[in-house]
Amino acid sequence: MQSIFDQAQEVAALLSIKLAKRSYREGAVWLCGFPLAHLDKHLRTLVEKHNRPVALCEEFVKNRGTATSKPTFERRVVRILTPGTLIDESFINPYVNNYLLAISNLKDETVGLAWIDISTGEFSSLETSLAALSDHLVRIGPREVVLDASLRESVTDPVKKALIEENALISYVVSRHTSGIRDVNNQIEIEDCEEISEREGESIALLTTYIRERLLEHTPNSLRYSRDETIDRMQIDAHTLKALEIKENLADGGTSGSLMSTVKRTVTSSGTRLLSKWLCKFMSV
């Protein structure tokens, strides 16, 4: 795998690999690269550690050729890796769900939230107030948050300010909101979806649009919906949830000494993420 020109300088610095420079008649060219066997290791570094999107390209036969001509090939992007759209088990932290969260634009002091762990298919939504947004961010713990592209240059939007305060990774997408539950191109269908509010519908549209644009050929055909309810739950704010060390300790942010590490007896990574979900389901805002 090889990078050239200015991108090579950036990639070499992020991956701590050797940067080379070759001189040609037209000028100098920066180069860096690594063996294909190290791809997973470096993808994890770029996506998880540095929060960089990475486009994966594959080669396809364009023309099989004939007895007198060679076959020709074309390359195209088959998937774009981002922290919230990881579906590879080797990349995902077994202790926490890898949530991708979409938030609709603020209207009448309310917003819609829609979030999914693509690796497990868990998908939920709710409508909440701006005042309660920070508590929901702590409870859900998204790896990536999607906003409407209209907010990209905004410095005053309250929702964006709340995300920055929580050090959330923000991505943007052009909304394709429609009045129905089905995705605009019928590529994603929301199954078992109860009646949702307008704000939730807007956030779901943002979420499905972003998933389709990033996963491309790996986009799921359908998502199973589960409404997020807070009835009969203990109500805990964001600061208390952290102070109780439910999922991680306060000292270094690790799991050692937390309630999660004490009760964990799971065998698989997906089981560990499900346990983490249950702990926060009954100890949530």
Question: Which structural traits does this protein have?
Answer:
285 residues, 26% strand, alpha/beta
Compact overview of the structure:
By secondary structure, this protein is of the alpha/beta class. The chain is 28% helix and 26% strand.
Give a written overview of the molecule:
α5 links the parallel β11 and β12. It is built from eight helices and 14 strands. The model is unreliable at 179-186 (pLDDT under 50). Helices cover 28% and strands 26% of the residues. The relative contact order is 0.12. The radius of gyration is 22 Å and the shape is globular. The strands form five sheets. The protein has a five-stranded mixed β-sheet with strand order 8-7-6-9-10, with helices on both faces. The chain has a three-stranded antiparallel β-sheet with strand order 1-3-2, with helices on one face. It has a two-stranded antiparallel ribbon with strand order 4-5. The chain has helices at residues 5-15, 39-49, 133-140, 158-165, 198-215, 238-243, 259-263, 269-281; strands spanning 2-4, 20-24, 27-33, 54-63, 72-81, 99-103, 110-117, 122-129, 144-148, 170-173, 189-191, 222-224, 234-235, 283-284. It is an alpha/beta fold and 285 residues long. The longest helix has 18 residues, at 198-215.
